[in-house]
Design goal:
- A hairpin with a 2-residue loop joins strand 8 and strand 9.
- With 209 residues, the chain is an alpha/beta fold.
- The strands form two sheets. A seven-stranded mixed β-sheet has the order 3-2-1-4-5-6-7, sandwiched between helices.
- It has one domain: Rossmann fold.
- Helix 1 packs parallel to helix 6.
- The longest helix has 24 residues.
- The protein contains six helices and nine strands; from the N terminus they run βαβαβαβαβαββαββ.
- The structure holds glycinamide ribonucleotide.
- The site of glycinamide ribonucleotide (GAR) has 14 residues, from helix 1, strand 5 and helix 6.
Length: 209
């Protein structure tokens, strides 16, 4: 756990898609000299992820690691771990990364992997959260930022924000409004981590003021 006393916090950002969260982290953290946070590497499991172009534009090192290139998921995880160590990143930030890690990776980075999920967990975990939210008919949804544990979207919750579901919403419109909140919460949580303000006690995360 970062104590907040070290010079700069280096983070690894893992992506699979468009990378709007990555873009926010580049603008609000990486390119702000006062943030004390550097994106040391961006890793994608998909060669065509637009997030890679965003990283390259900001001169951040990128790597593509595809599951198909490995015999099993332990080896895939090990390659990602090797790259994280190579770039000396301390915190692993999942920003739309759609692969699950095996338990050894989660244990190695216990309380050092964070994820952003577009629902109020524990509602609607998994791969189609916004579609599931609309299909269920809930009136409020939102964003959850949490530490990653061995389960699917089950780790200790750091913070959440609420977003109302409108009768007129489709998946794209709802996801867009959720992302507005994601882009506020995610940089804030990484700053808290860098300042040593996050304390995990069992399932609870306390944000020290
Ligand atoms: C984000 O909305 C994030 O919450 C979601 O993927 C999107 C990635 O968007 N993550 C998950 O669903 C993880 N289970 P982005 O590529 O534009 O940042």
């Amino acid at each position: 756990m970062h104590t907040g006393k070290e010079s700069k916090l280096k983070i690894a950002v893992l992506v699979s898609g468009s990378g709007t969260n990555l873009q926010t982290l580049i603008g609000q953290l990486h390119q702000d000299e006062t943030s004390g946070i550097e994106i040391a590497v961006v890793i994608s499991d998909r060669p065509k992820a637009y997030a890679l172009a965003r990283a390259e534009r900001a001169s951040i090192p990128t790597h593509v690691v595809k599951t198909q290139d490995f015999e099993n998921r332990l080896d895939f995880d090990a390659e990602i771990s090797r790259l994280i160590e190579h770039h000396t990143a301390e915190l692993v930030v999942l920003a739309g990364f759609m692969k699950l890690f095996q338990p050894p990776f989660v244990r190695k980075y216990r309380n050092r992997i964070i994820n952003v999920h577009p629902t109020l967990l524990p509602a609607f975990p998994g791969a189609h959260p916004v579609a599931d939210t609309l299909a269920y008919g809930v009136k409020f949804t939102g964003v959850t930022v949490h530490f990653v544990d061995e389960g699917v979207d089950t780790g200790p919750i750091i913070t959440q924000a609420v977003v109302p579901v409108l009768d007129t919403d489709d998946e794209a419109s709802l996801h867009n409004r959720i992302q507005v909140e994601e882009h506020k919460l995610y940089p804030q949580v990484i700053k808290w981590y860098a300042e040593g303000k996050l304390k995990v006690k069992g399932r609870k995360v306390i944000v020290k003021q």
